[in-house]
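Q: I'm writing up a methods section and want to include an example of the input and output format. Could you take the sequence below and give the corresponding predicted structure tokens, formatted cleanly so I can copy it straight into the document?
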Amino acid sequence: MSFALPSIKSKPCQPEEFAFNEGNFGVPEAMTNGLSSVKTSLDVPHPLMLSESSYRKNVNKMNMTILRNTQGLHAPLRITMELKAAKKVGHLPFLPSSNVMHESLTGRDIEMDAIDVFNTPELAEVVGLPHAVVERSLGLL
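A: Here is the clean output for your methods example:
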């Protein structure tokens, strides 16, 4: 019995035809169209990839729904307002942003991720004179 509910198991689906621009020999023209155009024309390689790409958004939506059901409308509105205020915090353009306030509000400050390991200041590509960077951001250069 299914009780008219969708299946939990994901069913892989493949398109009938791929939209490749093929050359003379039936091979995709990677030199003229680029590799990214070939990648966008392909379907999702794994059924869980779509679910994983929107994981944080789904968890946030679920948490806001639980907050609204338990504490009322004020709690998700307050948290949303705090997150928007945290995104608007400005700094000088030549200084790296740490987003500490946003990470602590979303709970990402207690997680260890690849960004925490590989996003060190020594590997930052932003190099320049502070005055020139500020003048460029203001449109003076």
